[in-house]
Amino acid sequence: MKNITDSFVSMGHWPSVGSFEFNTDILATNPINLSVVLGVLIFFGKGVLNDLLDKRKQRILSTIRNSEELRRGAVEQLEKARARLRKVEVEADEYRTNGYSEIEQEKVNLINATYDSLKRLENFKNETLFFEQQRAINQVRQQIFQQALQRALGTLNNCLNSELHFRTISANIGILGSVEERTD
Question: What's the pTM value of the predicted model, to 2 decimals?
Answer without folding.
Answer: 0.36
